[in-house]
Amino acid sequence: MFLEIILFLALLALLTISSWKPARMPPGTFCWPILGELPPRSIPITEYLKNLKQKRGPIFTTKWGSHRIVVVTDYNLIKKAFNHPDIQGRPGFFSLELLNNCKNAGVIHSHGSVWTENRRFLLRHLRDLGMGKTALEGSIQQEAEMLVDHLDKNCVGKPAAMNHSINCAVLNVIWQMLASKRYDIKDKMMHRYIALIDEDMNIIQGILFIIDVFPWLAKVLPSFIMNKVFKVDVLYRNRDEAQSMFKQVIDDHMATLDPNNPRDVIDQLLLERAHRDAPDYLTPEDEVDVLAIISDSFAAGSETTSSTLRWMILYMAINPEIQAKVHKRLDEVVPNDRLPSLNDRNQLQYVDAMLLEVMRLSSFVPIGMLHTATAEVTFEGYDIPKVNLI
């Protein structure tokens, strides 16, 4: 009995010591062993962090489960931190490792030189293909017309779920840049891909959050519990199915690739990655990276735009007087025989202001992308250990 008590006290002491933070880290308070300082579910995470900021200052330390996190809340300090060369890593969360095949690939979850090169490549070629320019207007206008026509035929005068319709329109614009393709709103593959994304997000933001916060559970829990409770087998299956869809598109591009006339981002990727002696062949490493870049482009582009549109529709519905003013201004500026274009933007300041206010109010991404320190860092007089989350 005495030995058991000694072992228990020793374990408790180790857990308590592990919850301490190094002396020169940003200010923080006592965290419970194992649990840390998990935010309550009763208030929004932004309010919780704002309360901690008032007590501890613009840079402070907290601990969620096994992860010690340095929180930066000042705009200028955030810019400075995320431009620091040693704060460019990505967290090794269980869910992210699973979706990315445990590879340093793509754009969203990559780090170091892979992130730098892939991001530079993607931005360069997306701009060449019209991102942020009038060259993309034709595709956006086509999808807008198709979306309005679909909503007019199926959603007028009755409650309707618009998620799929909006997602499909946004994904088609991205598909046009990436793969020179578009899908009908009733297309089975489009339906299936959107369903995969929705299911994955529900799992990751739901029960799997526990494994991300306490990653050691993945090493001790048997596989049947990981699958039954945390739906890990569903994520594996969905990942493989989505990658199979993208792989088919890549194979089609390889079969029709013209080095002198690249059509889209996938063609540019293949031309850059394919071997000179075998232009129709990608190494397994290159294939993983190409698949990750395509997947990340969809994830980053579709969800942000779709969420903004859904929030806009909601706010317009509950603020009909604002909706009427927006409608009136569009009628004044845009002739009935054409759709709005970027050339009209200078005369549509009220519409611009409405969109900015929607993004401010909704704030559907309240916390920036988590980073990790790739080396020991001194930032604003504080020491941040390697691998610490920021």
From TrEMBL:
Primary location recorded for the protein, binned into one broad class: endoplasmic reticulum
Keywords: Endoplasmic reticulum, Heme, Iron, Membrane, Metal-binding, Microsome, Monooxygenase, Oxidoreductase, Signal
InterPro entries xrefs: Cyt_P450, Cyt_P450_E_grp-I, Cyt_P450_sf, Cytochrome_P450_fam2
Range of residues in the leader sequence: 1-18
BP GO annotations: organic acid metabolic process; xenobiotic metabolic process
Coiled coil location: none
One GO location term (cellular component): endoplasmic reticulum membrane
Superkingdom of the organism of origin: Eukaryota
Cofactor: heme
Places the protein is found: Endoplasmic reticulum membrane; Microsome membrane
UniProt xrefs under SUPFAM superfamilies: Cytochrome P450
Its membrane topology: Peripheral membrane protein
Gene Ontology MF annotations: heme binding; iron ion binding; oxidoreductase activity, acting on paired donors, with incorporation or reduction of molecular oxygen, reduced flavin or flavoprotein as one donor, and incorporation of one atom of oxygen; steroid hydroxylase activity
Family matches, as PANTHER family: CYTOCHROME P450 306A1 (PTHR24300:SF403), CYTOCHROME P450 508A4-RELATED (PTHR24300)
Main function: May be involved in the metabolism of insect hormones and in the breakdown of synthetic insecticides.
Record-stated family: Belongs to the cytochrome P450 family.
Protein name: Cytochrome P450 CYP3213A7
Protein source organism: Hyalella azteca
